[in-house]
Amino acid sequence: MLKAVTTLTPHRISFAGGGTDIPNFYRENEGCVLNTAINKYLYVTVKKHSEIFEEKYRICYSKTEQTNTIDEIENGIARECLKLLNINYPLYISTVSDIPSSTGLGSSSSFAVGLLYALHTLNGESVSAGQLAEEASEIEINCLNHPIGKQDQYAASYGGLNYFKFRKNDIVEIEHIIPPHNGIENIFNSLMLFWTGFRKESSHEILKEQNKFLNKKIETLTSISSMVDECKSIFLKKDFNPKDLGEILHRGWVKKKMLAKSITNEKLNSYYDLALSAGAYGGKIAGAGGGGFILFFAKPDNQPNIIKALDKGLLSGAFLDVFEEEPLPKNSPLWLHPKVKLTPHIASLTYPKESTFQVLNCFERLEKGLDLPQQVSREKMY
Q: Rounded to whole angstroms, how far apart are CA atoms 162 and 241?
């Protein structure tokens, strides 16, 4: 029997349909979302806790909890996961993430899915992606009464680029999107994800505001839902055009801001306007809004304008993977820019099974003091 299990669960970005995955909406109107998992992960380790410790349960995240009963656990997701699976033996839980929490990339649902998968595995139980998504949704929506939807749990469970349809009877239909040849490369070539420099306000408060007088917002949410099929058709085109997708995201962002005042603020609006003036076709805030990450679709040759924005301090940093000229020229200012992180054209859809071995290989090499594979050297400039 296993003594310890570590899982890695992807974060996600949503392109269109956010808000229509909330039960109060889709049970009356049906909803749909197009999102993708990304190569940023949340890691959960569960280990049977030795009985020589004074406490029965130890949970380590941004704080450390030590309790003797499940009901004493303050972390709601951890507590309800243990209850749902009837865990009654001493247990150690530890979690760490590539991305800070409350930044709009679905971290709480990634934690729920990752913890559930780890506990099932520790118990010797097989579990499907659909079961994980539904159990995580049950915990967050019904047990904890969080005013959220289901897209994050399904994105974390299934991985990849997906179209999710939320039916009135609570059935979720999943369509895995496979763009034509070079489609993924063209999509990621045009996608930019920026950290705004501040975490969002509580997404629960934003969603509570959004859910107030929902009957008056049906038209707006229905309009947002209709954009999902438009995005899907663009992803499946042989000749992907970032302008087409950027314009849809822009229309979606305009509509989304109508759902709640706290979705945006003066600083976020200035970032968005700056990006459009620098050449972005359109974008949106990640998650419920209020802060965190913001994404745009734009041509790669607009990078000089982005650098200027970074130097002005209007944006806090950028992760860049694809460049107009590759390899990136040695004289490019991107190499030495302190606010830019570079990866060697490796961004793609994330498939957890394959990625697990890559991450474990990196851990082993770190423990042995070896260089990491495919690491970019600022000194060598490749």
A: 19
